[in-house]
Structures are given as structure tokens and as C-alpha cells.
Specification:
Length: about 400
Amino acid sequence: MAHNAAELIETPLLDGDLLRQTAIREIRAQIVTLPSVRAHRLSNTEFSHREFVLVRVRLANGIEGIGEAAVLGGPRWAEESVESIQAAVTRYLAPALLDCPAARPAEAALRMAKAAFRNNAAKGAVETAIYDALAQTLDVPLTLLFGGALRDRVPVLWALASGDAEQEVEEARAKLAAREHRDFKIKLGFASPEDDLRRLRRLRDEVPEMRRLIVDVNQAWSEADCRRFLPALQELRVDLIEQPLPGDDFEGMARVAAQSPIPLMVDEAAFTHREITRAGTMGCGSVYSLKLVKSGGLRALTQAARVAESSGMELYGGCLLEGSIGAAAHLAVFATLPRLPQGCEHFGPRLHVSEIVKDPLVIEDFHLCVPQGPGLGVHLDEDRLRDALRPS
Ligand code: MUC
Ligand code: MG
């Protein structure tokens, strides 16, 4: 039976104390700017500093939870910008959530769905902060609220995205030498396919120790490009091709996937559960990239994983270059998934020259460690945050 938010609030309280203690009292959204270690290029945007929105949710018991809403280079990767996220949170989501108990995350998600259409990055960050505050209140790690951790670390790749082959060779060698990354994602699509392939060939030749190679075209190729350049990608032993065609070209992706000896990964094409089902059942790809900014919440992210698998796709732990807060949120779900055969790409915490948490995530032995401790397991460093806030 369908419930609306009002009915849910009126249901008898099982634990009135917990509901009272976790009532949401305040939600803030702050724009943070952090310089990147180098320029990062995608087919449709480029940036040398990253902006995101830090969401802080305070409960009646005084506990504060945090969440991160990521964008890439303004409203380019998807439609949200830091400005739109800040407005969506403060003007629409926060008023709708006032007094909602964090101990009822399903109700919080329902209230947000009623208050705003899509705005997934904004909702994902608010929901993360709610879950963080709830898990801290219960004194349990966030993974426990999603079924409990099945792993304490996840293989993590690094993205080469400067477009400068010499710099990328050096960067790959440094990551291998530090035993941080041995699998790499190469961003394509900002140069001609011929130039991209020259770059790839140089990497393969000069860094033979690189293990898996994924290429992410970020929607820049046509179906004809795919037919032309797939044989070369196969020759270069590329393991996975991410979203070569425009996100709305489901038929084209399915045709390319049917011909490709290399599996395709669905990224920008599928945000909603219906889109994931459609992409999987049409055969648009054999792998799905899970992202909080696509699912709009951690609970929806766990559901997206089930939908993708049941539609025939393997799971890959995607990112939007989040720092440690957003990466920890993804890990809280990734750690609980029965299968995550493609590992994850949460290298974002290392792409920035600094972080706004006291305890940045640890990468060792080619894995990203799931933070331990109550809640998300990462904590704001107020001094660093003050320095990183965008002046209003
Ligand atoms: C994307 O399209 O996957 C994630 C890693 C990266 O380099 O770009 C992002 C977005
Ligand atoms: Mg992608």
C-alpha cells in the first residue's frame, strides 16, 4: 500500500526516544573549492580546481552528519552546479526535512522526492549526512545500516586525464611505484580518436606494468567511430569501454555492444532504476557504473546495484571525483555489495592538493580502505574547511 509522508509521520512510534533525539533541526550547504594536483580533462569539460557542496545536518541530540555533493566543471557532466545544489538544499530540501527523524531515512527520502524533482547530487549529499548522523547516534559504522561490511578494502584505479602523454607516463609510473594503483582509466574524447589512440599506445608501450586499462569516452564518439576504432582498442588490450556514445542513444550502444569484443560500461545513460533496467535488458553494456550523483541517495544506490545486476550488468564502483567525504559514502555501500567484480575508481581524495577532513581515506597496496568507526568514519577539519570555503 502506498503511504504519503503525512501518514508515515502519524504511524505509532516504536522508539519515541530515538525518533525525538534524531529529529532534524538544521541543514546547511557550503560551497568548497579545492585546487587539483593537475588539470583533469573530460570530453566535455576541463578543470584545475574542484568545487563541491558540503552538506551538514544537525539533529536534536546535537550530533552533526556530513555529506558531499559533487559536480564536474559546473553543470557539464550532469545538470547540477554547486550554485543549484546549494539553492536546492537550502530553499527546498531543508524546509521539507525539518523535524523528520534521521532514524527514518526512508521517510527523509520520500520527503525529498516530494520537495524536488531529480537534483540527485543535492539529495545524495543530504541523505549521506542524515545517515552519518544516524549511524553516529547509534555508535555504529554506516556500513551496518546497509547490511554490514563484506570487505574492508576495495581495489581502486587511477585516471590519467591531462591529455599530455609524457606527463601521463610519469604519473602512471609514480602510482605503480607507490603501490597505490596498477589499474588505470584513460579519459578519451577531448582529442581526435587518432590522437587518443596515439596517447594510449604510448602508455601501453612505455608503462608495460599497467594492468587493467579502461577507457572513458564520456559520450564523445559516434557509432561509426566505435566501429572504426574498436579493433585498435582491442589490440591495445583495453579491458572496458565506458559510455562511448551519447547517454540517450540506447539503441546505438546496444548495437556497438553486440559487435564489441570488449565489454561496454554504462555511465551517463542510466540514472534512474528504469533507465538501468532499460540499458541492461537492451544490452547497452555488460557493466554499470554506480554513482551517488546518479542514484540520489545511498539507499537508492544499493537498490541500483540490485537492479543493474538483475538486468544483466556487473557492478563497477564509479565516482564523480569526490573527496574523502563522498568517497566514504560510496564505500559504505560498496563494502556491503555481495559482488563488486570491477572494483572502484575513488581516487578523488588524491586528486586534490588538500582535503577538508582530519582523516583522509587511505590507499595502500592498490586498494582503498573502508574507514572504520561510527558513521562515515571521516571528520571535518574546521580550519582546513574555513580556508577552502568559497567566499560568499
Ligand atoms: C566519469 O564520467 O566517469 C569519474 C572519473 C573521472 O575521471 O571522471 C569521472 C566521471
Ligand atoms: Mg564515466
